[in-house]
């Protein structure tokens, strides 16, 4: 709880023995429905090109990237992320097919602040209306909090209502709008900021685990209860 210091000033909660969060390494994370593999152009570019080819330019409107037009262009796009030391990039692997169907990264990693962002979220239409996106984000959240992070962020274009709603469904809390944060593809971008903090994580973890449980899906893979129904 906030308290008064020796000067009579209100100061915020102490964080005892804080020495920063751990290093987020490029190691695999595995769930029941999907796995996150360290991104690799040789292993994942062809699968990702095929997955993204099921969509069109409308899937890329609010992203920094444009839809790659070939396997080679996809490989170059992937290599840029793999070569960026500021990112921890993953391919999302559908465990049913064994193929990569999306891409996501840790970014904006601030170990001493205990803050990290889930970004570069590039799902393909093979992930639409499936458990894969939810489990992929759960795996990233779980790993980040277990590595000692106090805060996990989600930022999206303020026009990208679907991204904000997806984050709120997962339990991220809207914090505000960063006005004129970027110029992207020649247009202004205001960024909506959301987060989950460590004190909220045990409840969010329980909700996500309950929704992802095998018994919450029927024989055709349809959810029995919506994620929001597990929220108390």
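^ structure tokens above, recovered residues below v
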């Amino acid at each position: 709880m906030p308290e008064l210091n020796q000067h009579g000033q209100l100061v915020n909660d102490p964080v005892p023995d804080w020495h920063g969060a751990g290093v987020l390494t490029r190691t695999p994370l595995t769930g029941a429905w999907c796995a996150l593999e360290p991104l690799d152009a040789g292993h994942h570019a062809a699968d990702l090109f095929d997955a993204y080819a099921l969509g069109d330019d409308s899937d890329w409107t609010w992203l920094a990237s444009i839809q790659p037009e070939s396997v080679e262009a996809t490989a170059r796009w992937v290599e840029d992320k793999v070569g960026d030391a500021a990112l921890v990039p993953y391919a999302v692997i559908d465990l049913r097919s064994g193929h990569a169907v999306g891409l996501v990264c840790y970014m904006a990693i601030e170990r001493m602040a205990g803050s990290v962002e889930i970004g570069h979220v590039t799902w393909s239409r093979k992930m639409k209306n499936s458990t894969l996106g939810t489990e992929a984000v759960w795996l990233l959240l779980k790993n980040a909090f277990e590595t000692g992070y106090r805060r996990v962020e989600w930022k999206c274009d303020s026009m990208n209502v679907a991204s904000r709603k997806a984050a709120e469904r997962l339990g991220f809390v809207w914090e505000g709008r960063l006005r004129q944060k970027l110029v992207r593809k020649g247009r202004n971008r205001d960024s909506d900021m959301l987060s989950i903090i460590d004190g909220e994580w045990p409840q969010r973890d329980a909700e996500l685990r309950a929704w992802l449980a095998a018994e919450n899906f029927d024989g055709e893979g349809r959810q029995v209860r919506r994620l929001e129904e597990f929220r108390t």
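The mean pLDDT is 96.
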